[in-house]
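Action item from last week, closing it out:
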Amino acid sequence: MKKPSKPVPSRSPRTPAAARHAAGRYFEKLRRRTRRLEPLRTAVVHPVDAVSLSGALAASRAGLIVPVLIGPEAKLRSAAHAAGLSLEGCECIWTEHSHAAAAAAAALAAEHEVGALMKGSLHTDEFMGAIVAEPRLRTARRMSHVFVIDTPAYPRPLLVSDAAINIYPDVEEKADIVRNAIDLAHALGINTPRVAILSAVETVSPKIRSTLDAAVLCKMAERGQISGGLLDGPLAFDNAVSRQAASTKGIRSPVAGRADVFIVPDLEAGNMLAKQLEYLAGAEIAGIVLGARVPVILTSRADETHSRLASCVIARLLASLTTPG
């Protein structure tokens, strides 16, 4: 997973020098925790382009996964040729098309034949549709996605949710999104994650639904309906990451200025936040879905190999803490 460090953007007055580090350092730290673990048998769904196939095989070489490649034979072999890779020694399941590949992978996970699922070169709704349609993979929780983001400008990882699955979640769905993100934080070694419920403002306003949702979620935490973390909101993003911004606005909170988890109002806001950090702030990003019986590795089709490796690291850590059933 080692690669040249991304250039660190020039420091601004809003970014303390002590907070800056090389992007990817956090994922290297997590990677060290997986070295004593056996590779995770993982169904890789429709990896029919050079990028997704290269990521899966790189994770295999790194000892993170044992890939089971599922997709049309001709396309998989073409992708391997384009990437200069060999499928020799790889377990492959040939299917007619991507729909069949997703269904076959979901069935393997339901039958405990694989311990994780990994998205290849297909749309997220097609990939996740097969998982949701398999009742043996569902739990009492709603499934949700978390971007784990390591950015040079922040001294800890940012867990952003949900930016890939739940488009406009209601407050009940957001409660599960929060619970899933807290569980992931625990798996990553963050014992009491600070959870910021984001909005455009830090005051409750009947005109802005996300502020009302934030107030409800915080009250649910106060009553023990959400546990394992410290919640506060609504918080604007600057108040969540900057103590100075929070202090200027008179916000006193154990979360403000040092949040670990960022719960966004909707998928659009979360996706734009994550991609801005990746492309403009030099961040490295991993993606994982929680709420299913097995970890689901969900990255963008445009993501490079290092993002796929980082996502496999997280899946491996999650799988080591859970048992199927």
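Closing note: The chain has two domains: 21-138+294-325, 140-291.
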